[in-house]
Design goal:
It is a single chain. The chain is built from ten helices and ten strands. It has about 325 residues and is of the alpha/beta class. Strands 2-1-5-10-9-6-7-8 form an eight-stranded parallel sheet, sandwiched between helices. Strands 3-4 form a two-stranded antiparallel ribbon. It starts with a strand and ends with a helix. The chain binds zinc ion. Zinc ion binds near residues 162, 163 and 288.
């Protein structure tokens, strides 16, 4: 499958400082992994532009956007976790630009998928607030933009990052044109993502939270995909699926204690891609978390190889734990699917 790979050296210029887990080496590890497996020759490299700042205002307040833009070239901490270095604003503008460009590119071409290797990540960024390493909500901006431009009527955002994407959920909590699905550890940072959070007003039933205890592994995550994500793709009929592609649920990740492996990620995304091809739903992956360099490198390489070669893996029997089955049953009853 034609696979677009969005990357720009500016992403390395966002430097939250020594010892910060969200560090430039994350992207260097991903790129090294591609080169070592020759996948770099098989993807189509795209250098994204910085986003048009007016696009940010579909998701963030005017005042917030102006406040962040004014920090270009500065060093400061927006909260204890979220640090701006002189290159951060430019990197963040390019990360949002990559998400928007990737969404548009896959919508306008056939049998094309995109992976955005971007920093800083986005899913914690709120309308008025930077948090959790995130400045602009890349995925939310892309979803909002393609709907605003009439390129898609409905978008699904699937967010299997270890952490709940509070910013993304809030952006669409009252909307019925973007269906947000998150699998995350709970209770955990950032504290949101309870099973009872299912949307409000017109958005009621269009947010699905699957809060999990620690230790959940490949079969548990694949079960959620099969029982929840695939049925939403069928019934909501989106033109586009954006993945908030976090890898901090990996068994080796230092920030969490989930047990997902490379083959779990491949299994999840194989099932999603098979359904997407069947239903003509276009897909773009936008990097979020993932802090073990080797896990990040090998997970991204495995997924890209799967996408390029369309080696979609479905074979093995899924044995989720009882608790996950009960959570998913509870969630499904409360959704518009
Ligand atoms: Zn995370």
């Amino acid at each position: 499958m034609r696979t677009l790979f969005y990357y720009h050296p500016d992403f390395l210029e966002h430097n939250p400082g020594r010892g910060h887990p969200e560090r430039p080496e994350r992207l260097r590890a991903i790129i090294d992994g591609l080169k070592d497996s020759s996948l770099d020759q098989q993807v189509e490299w795209v250098e994204p532009q910085t986003v048009d700042p007016s696009y940010l205002k579909g998701i963030h307040s005017d005042e917030y956007v102006e406040r962040i833009l004014a920090l270009d070239g500065c060093s400061t901490a927006l909260d204890p976790d979220t640090v701006v270095s002189p290159g951060s604003v430019r990197a963040a503008l390019r990360a949002a630009g990559a998400a928007v460009e990737a969404a548009k590119a896959v919508l306008s071409s056939s049998r094309t998928v995109a992976f955005c290797a971007v920093r800083p990540p986005g899913h914690h960024a709120e309308r008025n607030r930077a948090m959790g390493f995130c400045l602009f909500n890349n995925v939310a901006i892309a979803a909002d933009r393609v709907i605003t431009e009439g390129l898609a009527r409905r978008v699904v955002i699937f967010d299997p990052d270890l952490h709940h994407g509070n910013g993304t959920q809030n952006a669409f909590y009252r909307r019925n044109d973007v269906f947000y699905i998150s699998i995350h550890r709970y209770p955990y940072y950032p504290g949101t993502g309870a099973i009872s959070e299912t949307g409000e007003g017109e958005g009621q039933g269009f947010t699905a939270n699957v809060p999990l205890p620690g230790g959940m592994g490949d079969d548990d995550y694949m079960f959620v995909v099969m029982e929840l994500v695939l049925p939403v793709m069928e019934s909501f009929r989106p033109e586009l699926l954006l993945v908030s592609a976090g890898f901090d649920a990996h068994v080796s990740d230092p920030l969490g204690d989930m047990s997902v492996t490379e083959s779990g990620f491949v299994g999840m995304y194989s099932r999603i891609m098979t359904k997407a091809l069947e239903k003509n739903i276009k897909c773009a992956f936008i990097l979020e978390g993932g802090y073990d360099l080797y896990a990040l490198r090998s997970s991204v390489s495995s997924i890209l190889e799967t996408l390029i070669e369309e080696k979609f893996e479905h074979s093995h029997e899924i044995r989720p734990c009882q608790e996950v089955q009960e959570i998913v049953d509870f969630v499904i009853e409360r959704l518009r699917i």
